[in-house]
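Mods, move this if it's the wrong board.
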Amino acid sequence: MTIGIWVLGDQLSAEQSALQSCQPDQCRVILLESSSVLQRRRYHAQKLVLVWSAMRHFAADLSGQGWTVDLRECERFGDGIRSWIAEHGISELRLMEPADREFRRAIEALQLQVPVIWLASNAFLWSREDFAAWAAPYKQLRLELFYREGRKRFGVLMEGEGSSAEPLGGQWNFDQENRKPPAKGLQGPEPLWFQPDAITEAVISKVEQLDAALPGSLRPFHWGVSRSQALQVLDHFVETRLAGFGPYQDAMVSGEPTLWHALLSPYLNLGLLHPLEVIRHLEREGLRREVPLAGLEGVIRQILGWREYTHGLYHWFGGDYPASNHFAADRPLPGWLEQLGGSGMRCLDTVLEEIAASGYAHHIQRLMVLANYGLLAGLNPQALTAWFHRMFIDGFDWVMQTNVLGMGLFADGGRLASKPYAASGNYIKRMSTYCKGCRYDVKARTGDNACPFNSLYWDFLARHEGELRRNPRMALVIKQLDKLPAEELGAIRAAAGRHLEASAPAPR
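Not the wrong board. Structure tokens:
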């Protein structure tokens, strides 16, 4: 009798619960590299390389630790796992619970002829049961309440002990200090990139030979692909970026795609780093180096707060959440989204070109440029969420559904966010350098040269005025809408219509 452990592509930790349930000499490990995933989603080429190369490196690392490991390339997961079970006489198959619910459904649908044992995930700080226990008493689940509870529960950036503990610095949140617009000539430190080794080069060659036209540039590929490299990125962030992270974390600068951002999300989401070890390391080193508390708290909040919160909500909201479409948005995606450029708007094209090059854009580029456009233009939420999942190096269902449907598009009607994060071109002008040299005039709302974000913004408010008027947090902008002369509003909406008509849908 042989116990089998199936390690999924985003569970690449030697500490994950399925591996921890067994000794290396008592079981056999399988990782499956299936090309059938491309039949459902045309992933960014670099995302495919990252996941497959990380799996191969992890398999090699496990083998070096005494595990018996098989990494199989296959067309379909079902065929690969069945042949492996038969070949090695697997009597029981163990898996750690997947982060994405659809993966468990797909595995259960295989109806394997051996018992399948699911182990609770330990990839996050909050178990699903603990999150549900926290969430149950509340009518509205707000990040700030969850984040404060997490700070207390895990003793992060706290002073004192037990019930008398207080947040370090006397307040929980220093977000107001972390929203500076970009200063002239703003440049961040160089990121830590890696040259592909022989394993990664083999994966790149495989992807090059696939019979699929994948979006994004395949080379140069510089992401880390192992735990060792992920730890190097963490150390590099602490040494070169942590001290400067806070003030400009919302800034967007042409030619500076990473600024002071940590670039840790791909490694956290693959399991190469555990969130608690990252938080503890940041807290310890940040305090030792006397990093400004506002910046230290800000980066920890993204992991301890936002990341854990969105994962918890993904499972709390349940299987109906992906179909959310509060504004009944149904416009197909424009062709330039799939082509990663060609919108004519410098802000969008800059971000899309950066995504094409690396599969990465930081959180404000995602929320206030890409998702903001989708919200204002009325793009189909399910199509745009799937696009985010495919294009981003760190994208998974649990990441993108809550971030895009909830935070970005308000498609859930306020279950996550308290208001739609709609913004005109003025926000992009204030927080970026993108408007300089753009063919559109960010100050204009009508005319052929008017910034599309402006006309789309007022058109969005007018389309949903009845709904938005009932939201107290939208009262000020609705008052501004009320002050617009009918003739001017008509001209604005006509400009929005012309822009949308000119944005052809993506080819099928």
